[in-house]
Amino acid sequence: ELPPSEFMQVADSTWLVLSVVSNGREASGCQATGVTKIARSVIAPLAEHHVSVLMLSTYQTDFILVRERDLPVVIRTLAGEFDIYKEESGERVPVTCDDVSNGFLKPKAAASPTLHPVQSPQTRFCVLTVAPDTLPAIATVLIDVLFYSHSPPREAGAGSQDLDSITFFAFSLIEGYISIVMDAETQKRFPSDLLLTSSTGELWRMVRIGGQPLGFDECGIVAQIAEPLAAADISAYYISTFNFDHALVPEDGIAEVIQLLRQRQESGR
């Protein structure tokens, strides 16, 4: 429904959403656990089979987007570890490898993935949700933050490894569930009694991946972050965007995260 515009860029591929659930249920709890739990079982195998993914963590759960044309490889790769279903008219229908065998290609020999630079701004972020029926009460502030408050992003050099701050605001509305990521200063503009977060009120720091826009064809970008953090049992809240990827980690663990990623960077050279 969006009118064509010279200001709008649209990726060529159509993407499908994978939602990883446990025992047939969505992940319970009211706090993002991030990509750590699915790094070894989903993210790493897909990277090894040359499947490019977009990752979207929300307050409630995590979603993996894969290109529609890669679905046969995705099913073949994950069928040994998971029961896989597709939604038809609101019902879950089992999917087997035979259903998607057409077009399946065996993976090529694994190539060494590119290890992209990471930047860690000093900005502190909050991961929040809001009850849908209270959304009108914050609509005015939300519109102002989304469309009017932020100045155009300043250009950062491709070799820049350290940012003082970063402008980042993510709002998602998925099946009625609202998830918001905003910096701690922006949070002060919203009514505190309407924004829900974990009982600890934990703040997060960001690691931004890529010194320039990443594109959609390269594989292993999410794995570059997810695998070392999973090995260290560090949760990460991960959001892929059109230009860059972003991982949020608990503030008190940012030093360890940067050290782990730098070690991986050095070992990959």
Automatic annotation (TrEMBL):
Keywords (A to Z) from UniProt: Cytoplasm, Phosphoprotein, Ubl conjugation
Domain Cytosolic arginine sensor for mTORC1 subunit 1/2 ACT-like: 116-199
Residue intervals of the CASTOR ACT domain: 11-78, 201-262
GO terms for cellular component: cytosol
Molecular function GO labels: arginine binding; identical protein binding
Main localization of the protein described in the UniProt heading: cytoplasm
Subcellular location per the Swiss-Prot or TrEMBL entry: Cytoplasm, Cytosol
InterPro entries per the UniProt record, alphabetical: ACT-like_dom_sf, CASTOR1_ACT-like, CASTOR_ACT_dom, CASTOR_fam, CASTOR_mTORC1
The UniProt record lists the keyword Transcription regulation: no
Keyword ATP-binding: no
One BP term from GO: negative regulation of TORC1 signaling
Domain of life: Eukaryota
Family, per entry: Belongs to the GATS family.
Function: Functions as an intracellular arginine sensor within the amino acid-sensing branch of the TORC1 signaling pathway. As a homodimer or a heterodimer with CASTOR2, binds and inhibits the GATOR subcomplex GATOR2 and thereby mTORC1. Binding of arginine to CASTOR1 allosterically disrupts the interaction of CASTOR1-containing dimers with GATOR2 which can in turn activate mTORC1 and the TORC1 signaling pathway.
PANTHER family cross-referenced by the UniProt entry: CHROMOSOME 1, WHOLE GENOME SHOTGUN SEQUENCE (PTHR31131), CYTOSOLIC ARGININE SENSOR FOR MTORC1 SUBUNIT 1 (PTHR31131:SF3)
Complex formation: Forms homodimers and heterodimers with CASTOR2. Interacts with the GATOR2 complex which is composed of MIOS, SEC13, SEH1L, WDR24 and WDR59; the interaction is negatively regulated by arginine. Interacts with TM4SF5; the interaction is positively regulated by leucine and is negatively regulated by arginine.
This protein's name: Cytosolic arginine sensor for mTORC1 subunit 1
Organism: Ardeotis kori
Organism classification: Eukaryota, Metazoa, Chordata, Craniata, Vertebrata
Encoding gene (name): Castor1
